[in-house]
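Database export, one record per block. Field names are fixed; values are copied verbatim from the stored entry.
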Amino acid sequence: MVILLNDTSDIPVYLQIRNQIVIGISEGKLAPGEKLPTVRALAEEIGINSMTVNKAYQLLKQEGYILTDRRNGARVRENFGGSAGLSGESLELLKKIASEAKISGMAKEAFIGICEQYFGE
């Protein structure tokens, strides 16, 4: 999986890394149990400080997307039998996006169609 950073984005780099890994898991580009690059290797590959990658990995671990241990490094979690819902932060972001779409005049059906496209329906 290739991580592409947007230097002009207001989104912090560690969140860009986190978001791309979550999307990679969702799209099947990162398989359950797949080993992620080491913090140092990923930092060198994308040209950033290793502490930034470490922060992204810690967040992914906290959120339950990856597992880490000293011997095996970071791996995509095997199963995600969690709450089957969105975090409060994600719900707020979805609310913001839906509101922007509504204000811009987008039809509800068009918005739902975009959601279905990304959800994989």
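Remark 1: The CA atoms of residues 66 and 72 lie 12 Å apart.
Remark 2: The mean pLDDT is 91.
End of record.
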